[in-house]
Amino acid sequence: MSVRELEGKVAIVTGATRKRGLGRAIALCLARAGADVVVTGSGLAPAAEVPRDERDSNWRGTEDVAEEAKTFGVRALAMVVDVTASAVVQRLVDETAAKLGRIDILVNNATFARGNDRVPLQELDDDLWRRIVDVNLTGTMLCCKYVSRYMIRQGTGGSIVSISSAAAVKAPPTVAAYAASKAGMHALNAVLAAELGPHGITANVIAPGVLDTARVDVLRETGRWEARLAVVPMGRPGTPEEVAELVRYLCGPHARWISGEVFLVTGGEVRRAAD
To answer: pLDDT by residue (tens digit) across 152-192?
Structure first.
């Protein structure tokens, strides 16, 4: 692997707000490999919803991620983007192309925050279901739609990587909206791989298991952390950096014939037997 194998490429990474988040790790990994990056978030959350380490360090979300990316000698932009709004996503594409000149990589990492949806389906609020599906699935669709449209016109191929979840395959209780929305991403990805392959654009999904990010802090707060790790054969959570390296590989020159795949990254928790 060349240290700067993504030199000259431009990447969009959605959902890159958290200091201890997967989006940040992905953006910095791509920047380290030489790609210019655009990082997006939905805007700063209310103070009560911000992790303590971010409050203590005056973390600015995507602004700080972009500044970190620049330390690798690349260009970086931070944008507030509602991925569920067509016009806003189109503006993201237009501004990225205008300011950075091209788009080669899209990483769909934006996802609805973990919250009151972890209940049996019979108790799930209808509007909450719609919002989760809107952010996780429709948001991914809109980003894929408008970015791939640009990539096709650009005519130099590209890479799309969507971050799903092992929950889409494992489908445990009380995660109906989350699991269904993530499983929908798998079907969407399969269609994209077929449609975009003739244009040299790859489309893949990474479905991580439990990662040591701010998203799962609630498990520590309620004492469920040890029980969660007990079902992982490797006995530990994954790191955002481990997933980010797979994203980097799938966007690089050695993965141009890999498309339409779902990569389970779960420490062995979710496994597929031979057909």
So the answer is: 999 999 999 999 999 999 999 999 999 999 999 999 999 99
Count other Cβ atoms within 10 Å, centred on residue 190: 16
In whole angstroms, what is the distance from residue 140 CA to residue 201 CA?
A: 16
Is-catalytic flag, 178? yes
Using CA atoms, how far residue 145 sits from 59, 95, 119, 241, 271, in Å, is: 32, 16, 32, 27, 31
51-92 residue pLDDT tens: 878 887 888 999 999 999 999 999 999 999 999 999 999 999
In contact, 34 and 5? CB cutoff 8 Å? yes
Question: Of 146, 150, 178, 249, which one is the catalytic site residue?
Answer: 178
Place of tokens 């109906």: 176
In this structure, which topology does domain 10-265 adopt according to CATH? Rossmann fold (3.40.50)
- Residue ranges covered by each domain of the chain: 10-265
User: Maximum CA pair distance of the chain?
Assistant: 52
Phi, psi of 252 (to 5 degrees): -95, 180
Residue 173 phi/psi, 5-degree rounding, is -60, 155
Q: Over the stretch 94-103, which tens digit does the pLDDT of each residue have?
A: 999 999 999 9
User: How far is it, in rounded angstroms, from Cα 154 to Cα 118?
Assistant: 42
